[in-house]
Amino acid sequence: MREGEEFGRRLRAELPGAARLDAQTQAAYGSDASIYRVLPLAVLEPRDLDELGAALAIAREHGVPVTGRGGGTSVAGNAIGPGLVVDFSRHLNRVLAIDPEARTATVQPGVVLDELRRQAAAHGLTFGPDPSTQSRCTLGGMIGNNACGPHSVAWGTTAEVVHRLDLLLADGRTLSAGPGGSGDAELDRRLISLRDKHLAELRRELGRFRRQVSGYNLAELLPEKGFHLARALVGSEGTCALVTSATVALTPVPATTVLLVLGFPDVYTAADQAPVLAAAGALTVEGMDDALIAALGSGPGSVAARELPPGRAWLYCEVAGEAAARELAGLVEASALVVTDRARAAALWRIRKDGAGIATRMADGDEAWPGWEDSAVPPERLGGYLRELHALLADHGYRGIAYGHFGEGCLHLRCDWDLLSAQGVSRYRAFIEAAADLVVAHGGTSSGEHGDGRARSELLARTYSPAVLRAFAGFKAAFDPDGLLNPGVLVAPQPLDADLRPGHDRIELPVVHALHADRGSFAAAVRRCVGVGSCRQASGPMCPSFQVTRDEVHSTRGRARVLGEMLRGELLDPDATAVREALDLCLSCKACKHDCPVQVDMATYKAEFLHRHYRRKLRPRAHYSLGWLPLLARLARPAPRLANALTGNRTALRLAGLEPRRDPVSFARTSFRSWWRRRGGARGTGTPVLLWPDTFTNFLNPEIGIAAVEVLEALGYRVELPRGPVCCGLTWHSTGQLDIARRVLRRSVRALTGDQLVIGLEPSCTVLLREDAAELVPEAAGLRDRVRTLAELVAAHQGDWPFERLDAKAVRQPHCHQQATFGDAAEREVLARLGVEVDQVDAGCCGLAGNFGFEPGHWEVAQACAERQLYPKIRAAPAGTLVLADGFSCRTQAAQGTEATAVHLAGLLRKALSPPASSRSGG
To answer: What is the pTM of this model?
Structure first.
């Protein structure tokens, strides 16, 4: 313990900008995408190789093990360790050079695969191996575990495309490994001697089929392979050296590709036919069964799943052209779908790419886990292996979801193991051992990609002879004789059932939300995050705080890991400030609820935590000034000018506990309800609809409500308002004041008598009523079918169209909550019909996110979120371009950072009314 404390002290003192030893960071890096948990002593985010070398020297002096990590997307527990974890992804993440003539790239280990492919695409090239985690996995991680992916069937595995590796050894030496050795005569002599000692075994047992990834890749040391040391080190999982740069081969991108989807009566037939299609030149031969589609349910990709051709299993074959696709389809008996449209193909591919996330819940909601994840056999034996594997599952009482790289004989399988009880873990071990024997009987190995890690290293003894195991041990010892680098993996492995992450929750928080999808369990909800890392993508809606900080703690996964440690009750507890700090930069934008393949809902988890954390405690002032905004706005109603004078300055913002750099909100001189009463209430005899007067529309932007009334009446509807004051409770909900939120919501729901459609204008309130209300109060269960957006009602209108074409251009910021739930198809349809050419912000949240952007300490993150797309698009737009945003926060944020005044769709529709709306309503 003292040695670890001294190590930490030195690390802090000598590398203060790169070393992290706080509890949140330990929790966030304690797992990857596997079922394992090992808390590190410290995490290093080196900004250069000097810092990396200095940290390694300190670790060596104190006997602290070192584990390298990229995107942390390993499913085998390759990237966790008890000592120093080195995260290369935050800073050492550049493409150093691309040589289009030689078709090579030189990269730092932390560069994300998609970034390399983006830069290579400018030269008509790409990096062939492409695992489904390509948007966040790093080249260093791919090299560490010999990643492959769908296109490796045509373009090779990572081992096959590595030319040279620059390395840092545990003793501080640097090497450059490539074909012919390392340049270190003594090391090369030792390795050649090791190879020659085991020559017969290496030739007999290794390199038998492409996806034979288990163990060290020592077949590359054979004379006939040119003693290619760099490739021998691919798949060594950081146990021999740390990669500091790599030179890799690139491959030309086909001029055109189409997707051929083939449907089969069962997954076994699909597996039997896959080698035929691979041999015929398909660029991918990816398989999945109907259990994956059943698990998908109504989640992201479910619309695309309806396009799948008839069958109970499918193969995705990418080919170079439509004619080639039809020719390929003729080789097998299967239903077929040829997809030439890129958007449709991408939607179908998403199902396969999200498989690791989708498969973490069975169709009935039961949890499923990795464990027997990447087994591989010679492709021609996959069908037989899969039949026997499913029989083995049935014998052990398990269910599994199968998918994978069928053209190369590699299978992914998520199963409903019970990892929450000692008996369940014992049964899990028995199955894994039996499965390992089965795959070996079919000529395969337990790993067909992504290395062995903690999940499979113990199984090497069931796969290879003692002589080959001795060769593996000798190979590691040649580089790392003291066993400093990533111990417990490959050589002297940890037991496969040690250090399991699930099953150790000591705390079960009582929840306010029903959490129907997780059967009322907060722990089960948190366990949804298996670590696939979709929240670490550099672009898109999820996760905005990670995208602007590049900090694992501030990703959805990092927060889930912190919450998991809180429930475990060892490192953290529900009252720990560290948990609140880890959740602090969550914008509650709900992007993870949609874009995460497991549908983690961090906004809800944060609300539940804040509810528990501040129970019977004084809250931050911002929780009162923002959470109680509906009441404060009502109190300001009699004298809005006075209220604005008192609150509309920086001093008032500071006193209210708000960010003083924010422009204060201004209460309207006349509320929407006041206007409504003055005009005499409802008019007309058309179909009645109920317009929801949310706080923002009622007290801050009543002109939006007025415009909506005029638009709805122009369409022939009779507009009514709920009786008495109503509120969805949004501001209390987002600040974790859930008891009050429920009381407010319950009272408001009672005001929604009858069966009229309820039209929402503020997207966040509309989403709460339509999606979240039933989780908070049972009485709201029927609202989902009644609540609509204004655009949905307009788009579905069957009568006369009272709007003229505007023929305008617009930058549009859709609301993050709406995008994460029911989407904006109706808004797009209405705008297209109005002749509005839209440049849409697709980066997700604007950054203000309701209370988030007004709270102190959030200014930089909030503004950086807007700088991803919103601000640049507005600034670059030609003069006269409209800015459209239905959300109050989005409009406020646009005004804060640009000169633009954003318009609500209701205002745009009112403008398009002919004759002018002003002549209709009389003001």
So the answer is: 0.94
